[in-house]
């Protein structure tokens, strides 16, 4: 008989591995940044091609970024902000350590 585990058990084991939470948080941030850019682009009625050209990148690279598949550099975020005639704001927020 094989030892089978459901998704919840697998996820629990994987998240307990060293570095898993940091990787999860980085992926979440990349996804949130991509979603924000996609929302701003759609609000302006722009295509991915139009934004990509304005930001000096390819449409496929923008599509990957908007889907959360890549972690953008600050330089890329600045180019996208410039294309939108927006200001990039980066800040640090204090966090409360877990008890």
UniProtKB/TrEMBL annotation:
PROSITE patterns tied to this protein: HTH_CROC1 (PS50943)
GO molecular function, one term: DNA binding
InterPro entries: Cro/C1-type_HTH, Lambda_DNA-bd_dom_sf, TransReg_Diox_bact_type
Gene3D superfamilies noted in UniProt: lambda repressor-like DNA-binding domains
Key words, A-Z: DNA-binding
Any GO CC annotation of this UniProt entry: cytosol
Residue ranges occupied by any HTH cro/C1-type domain in the UniProt entry: 37-92
SUPFAM superfamilies named in the record: lambda repressor-like DNA-binding domains (SSF47413)
PANTHER family, per database record: HTH-TYPE TRANSCRIPTIONAL REGULATOR, METHYLPHOSPHONATE SYNTHASE
Protein name per the record: Ribosome-binding protein aMBF1 (Putative translation factor)
């Amino acid at each position: 008989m094989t030892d089978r585990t459901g998704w919840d058990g697998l996820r629990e084991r994987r998240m307990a591995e060293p570095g898993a939470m940091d990787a999860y948080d980085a992926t979440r941030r990349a996804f949130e940044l991509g979603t924000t850019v996609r929302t701003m682009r759609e609000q302006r009625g722009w295509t991915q091609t139009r934004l990509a050209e304005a930001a000096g990148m390819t449409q496929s690279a923008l599509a990957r970024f908007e889907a959360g598949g890549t972690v953008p550099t600050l330089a890329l975020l600045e180019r996208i902000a410039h294309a939108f005639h927006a200001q990039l704001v980066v800040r640090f927020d204090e966090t409360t350590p877990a008890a």
